[in-house]
Amino acid sequence: MKIVFLGTGDIGLPSLSAIQDSKEHEILAVYTQPDRPFGRKGNLKASEIKIFAESNSIPVHQPEKIREIEAVEGLVNYSPDIILVIAYGQILPKSVLDIPKIACINLHASLLPYHRGAAPIQASILAGDTRTGVTVMYVDEGLDDGDILFSISLDIRGSETGGSLHERLGKLGPDALIHSLDLLSSGSAPREEQDHEIATHVNKIKRSDGKINWSQSAYHIDRLVRAYDPWPGTFTFFPDHSNIKIFPPVEIVEYEGSDPGEIIDMDSNGILVACGTGALRISEIQPSGRRRMLIPAYVAGKELRLGDVLGVED
């Protein structure tokens, strides 16, 4: 089948590569978000999807809005059998959904109807889920609420981070999509309506969402630190009011009796911080503007004492 691929996030790269390598299907074009400023210097950075497409001589289009008349007309001119969407970053209007001859499908990184929205991978870890997966669905005008075509599940590990789960789910994508495309090509693809009554929704993540609230349980903060690694990261404020980024793994310790955020122990393994329930031992941090380091290296040049409280801003 002839396919137009819409995607920006790296999670779609294994699937795009697999379809490009297949003999049964043809990628007509790739649509991805415009290059965005990146880093302190603000240099424009292309998505990995764009880089891959250009290296394989696949036409690339980067409309600011996919609903623009010129973008829609360009899609119509390709006359695709399938429009495939993976982490594109825009909701498709009906004018786009009506273009493909067979279907417009999306690969979503959760087991729908759970965790609809922009950050399903982080949401599954934050929720304490034990299983997640990828879902291939038919796209409609709602947000991730179309009928399900196919899904594959996997177990979430106890040490899972947003980065590790992103990579594992990305590797599931090719199998799920190639199978779905084969079903669509043969005319035998199923349509299963989602159970909208049990659906959950997640918002786009902001950097500020990574601020640690020590009044929450140690179990919740552990999930937050893991879910938001590597992006947007989690942070707190040390007693000198400096912004400090926290890295996994953190160790959960059964404890009660101190105020949330209070340092209750310090040793060569790190600092133990009281939470609303339990405590967390932190071993690796990154002060603002500096490199990552173990706690002992930081303490060697700072005044840090038992009883100091984290999380207090200016």
Explained architecture:
By secondary structure, the chain is of the alpha/beta class. It folds into two domains: about 1-200, Rossmann fold (3-Layer(aba) Sandwich); about 205-300, Formyl transferase, C-terminal domain (Methionyl-tRNA Fmet Formyltransferase, Chain A, domain 2, Roll), CATH 3.10.25.10. About 25% of the residues lie in helices and about 25% in strands. The protein contains eight helices and 19 strands. It has helices spanning about 15-20, 50-55, 70-80, 95, 120-125, 160-185, 220-225, 295-300; strands at about 1-5, 25-30, 35-40, 45, 60, 80-85, 105-110, 115, 130-140, 150-155, 200, 235, 245, 250-255, 265, 270-275, 280, 285, 295. It has a seven-stranded mixed β-sheet with strand order 5-2-1-6-7-9-10, sandwiched between helices. A hairpin with a 5-residue loop joins strand 12 and strand 13. Helix 5 (about 120-125) runs antiparallel to helix 7. The longest helix has 25 residues, at about 160-185. The radius of gyration is 23 Å and the shape is elongated. The relative contact order is 0.11. The model has no long low-confidence stretch (mean pLDDT about 95).
Major beta-sheet overview: 7 strands, mixed
The helical percent reads 10-25%
Structurally, how many domains make up the residues? 2
Name the shape in a single word: elongated
CATH uppermost class of the largest domain? Alpha Beta
Span of the ends, CA to CA: 59 Å
* CATH level-two architecture of the largest domain: 3-Layer(aba) Sandwich
The arrangement of helices and strands along the chain is EHEEEHEHEHEEHEEHEHEEEEEEEEH
**What oligomerization state is this entry in?**
single chain
**Fourth CATH level, the homologous superfamily of the largest domain:** Formyl transferase, N-terminal domain
Strand order of the largest sheet: 5-2-1-6-7-9-10
Number-wise, the strands total: 19
- Cα Rg: 23 Å
Average pLDDT taken over every residue: 95
Number of helices: 8
Percent of residues in beta strands? Answer: 25-35%
Task: Briefly note the structural class of the backbone.
Answer: alpha/beta
CATH topology category name of the largest domain? Rossmann fold
Low-confidence stretches: none
